[in-house]
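Hi,

I'm pasting everything inline rather than attaching a file, because the server keeps stripping attachments. The sequence lines come first, and each chain or strand is labelled.
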Amino acid sequence: MAGGTASSGGTAADTYKNARPWLLLPAWAFLGVFVLAPVFMMLVYSFLTKEFRGGVIWEFSTAAYDQFFFNRGLFGDEPPTIEWTYIAIFWRSIWQAATATLMALLIGFPTAYFIATRPEKLRPMWVFLITIPYWVNLLIRTVSMKFMLRDNGPINDFLVGTGLINEPITIINTNFAVQLGLFYSYLPFMVLPIYASVERYNFSLSEAAADLYASKWVTLRRILLPAVKPGVVAGCILVFVPSLGSFLAPDLLGGAKNFMIGSLIEEQFKGNAGNWPFGAAASMVLLTMVLILLLIFARQQARAQKGTG
Amino acid sequence: MSDSRKIAIDVRGAVKRYGDFTALNTVSLSIYDNEFFTLLGPSGCGKTTLLRMIAGFEEVTEGAIFLFGDEIADLPPNKRPVNTVFQNYALFPQMTVLDNVAFGLEMRGQSRPESRRAAGEMLELVQLSDFASRRPAQLSGGQQQRVALARALAPKPKVLLLDEPLSALDLKLRKAMQMELKHLQRETGITFIFVTHDQEEALTMSDRIAVMSAGALQQLGAARDIYERPHNMFVADFIGETNLLEVTVREVRDGRAICSLGGGHILSGKSDQEVRIGARVHISVRPERLFMSDAPTDAEGLRGRVRENIFAGTDITTLVDLDEGPNLVVRTSNSDRGNKRIFEPGSAVYVNMEQEAARLLMD
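And the predicted assembly:
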């Protein structure tokens, strides 16, 4: 773990640590106006009544949440049963985001390890290469991915052309296409934090493990992974959270069947067909879920830190 | 040091190249079983490279390394029955002290309780039993050093490799650890290969020392041997302090070379090597083998003037400017004050050398 050094106080870092809280003022102001206020607005909207052409009527109502969680029949007069439609969309979103995160981890970890073990002078170049695709707008990248994955797109053409397959495989409009899209969108957020922690890793620990008869696999599992865990966890959060609420990849690559929570929310605010309170309520449910996940994680980290002393 | 002793490590013609750079140039040496052996040299001399080749962290470009007769150069580190104490200790930060020490035993297939019990015994040996459940970061540098030592000794390696293990400790602690290491080596009977750039440390601890420079072995021998009979200028200069006088060989008589210094002075020195008449060579003599007098004691006394006396606890160092030739350093032990005189700065003196102490060096 990164921490654990016993400082005896009186260092320059200590002197500077608690000084100048006003340095954070601009950040707090920004967060207040552009993050906290909008979130609060969403919270308020989710408890208002919907206006049919978009917008809200300022009248308290729990209808949005009711619609999200309960089914009261076509005319709303039957006894409530659990409404599975949106919970299913939520569940699918979590599944898609988790799969994309796992893919990013499986490809991102070796990549990060590779970069961190290059000669020091070459590392910035490798990091730079990782970021190059992300200079292109996300929408354009996702659209080009759609072209690549089409039934008569380059990938299928190649596979059919080489005789590996006889007929094009359907990739587009499947769960897998969405997972690929999400994975591709957020891969650098996995690579960079892992790279940062592997770069700080003391490789003589791996040598010490090998010296003490540990195989490469045991060294990875018992020495390297625990040491770079903070980077791995940060990478997973940075990929999972935006994947969960993403709507570009599911919209463009997943088609109507593979709807995710981000698309559901997006639709409620688009055009005249939307339902703002419902969109706001879905956002609040999403936000609550992410916060709970982060809290569980922070708890665990704190416990692990305590163990390290 | 008879050759009938068992050889623990046999390095034969070992070469290590990184691209165009040769880190180790055809080194051959044998290290005996149960020996405290030191690889000594300045940084970049190849001593750590050689140690890492024995441990298996560096591949051998050319040559072979044998461990008790078995070729090990192609074995990965985790298949070699040798253990290392690393310079920065490399203790596993997320494990307790006890788990650190038990790690090697566990990897060798011992059960968890069994390896923990043996690790506990090792901690007793290095007097850290009370710290078994701490994390490495909670220990002082000296304690971490002892944990690293216990961890490397726990699997009972055939050879223990120590890569400048004391360099991060302060002087007092280092002296204490030197004694402790020497003691541990005797007690365990394990061959220690110790890497250091500190010649004093090497002289204190080692049975034998290999002096290295520029990727090559310069001299191999017992500590006393290397100090008193250096083979070349590098060894004479690197081990301890020495006075070097550039001279020309005039004649060789009874194994002594009679040489001339500037100004008609005659000096003689012993040499193990063949000497050519007329060659420019150096005579090396240790400061403590010089003494001063106000009249010449023999024909070889060098005339000069005392510049400065430096008091350093156990001895006094005198700098003498010779009338002809370089400046000399003369060291007089405080316990020797009865026989050897100290002169005030500015006094004219003769500097004399003990006959056996002057060594002729070719390069």
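The longest strand of chain A covers residues 56-60.

If the labels don't parse on your end, tell me and I'll reformat.
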